[in-house]
């Protein structure tokens, strides 16, 4: 069962990675860089500070920062524990796949997927009652996560597990905020 899943993962990666073309390489290479998304992060902060009173916006911002620290640390610990090679570092694959980035760290699970899905989900949870269109923010983690397959550095299972971990962590931090911070500081419920 496990071997079949890993084989599916490898074959799916090869198929998705092979869909890339040089014409789209600059787009996906830019999209996969975290700095490309800084304007979106600033938009998240601005929206929180516009939609909430100062004190509450401050603690929401702290919650998001805490989530980022937690997810980055957790991701790196799991990568070092599992030690799954990235496709670009796998000698069985790297001679015939498209490689646009060459990180040397481990692959499982994707930090790009876990961080983008966790941040987006937490922001959506905080803003969903105040902005009807907030769900459009999920385009970011979907594109960001897929870009990791396109550039040759993550398998689909890395992305799927990273996304699930990100979602779970966002709900955990949202629950922490609503059950502990809101009552303790007597803030309005988000």
Radius of gyration: 18 Å
Number of strands: 0
From the N-terminal CA to the C-terminal CA, the straight-line distance is: 43 Å
Structural class: mainly alpha
- Low-confidence stretches at least 5 residues in length (pLDDT < 50)? none
What overall geometry do the principal axes of the alpha carbons give?
A: elongated
Order of helices and strands: HHHHHHH
Question: What integer is the average pLDDT?
Answer: 91
- Specify the biggest β-sheet: none
β-strand percent reads under 5%
How helical, in percent, are the residues?
Answer: 55-70%
Count of helical regions? 7
Record the SSE blueprint:
Layout: H1 2-18, H2 25-31, H3 38-51, H4 54-82, H5 111-127, H6 139-150, H7 156-185
Helix pairs in contact: 2-6, 3-4, 4-5, 4-7, 5-6, 5-7
Summarize the structure.
With 190 residues, the protein is mostly helical.
Can you tell me about this structure?
The protein is mostly helical. It is built from 7 helices and no strands. It has helices at 2-18, 25-31, 38-51, 54-82, 111-127, 139-150, 156-185. Helix 5 runs antiparallel to helix 6 (139-150). It is elongated. The termini are far apart. The mean pLDDT is 91.
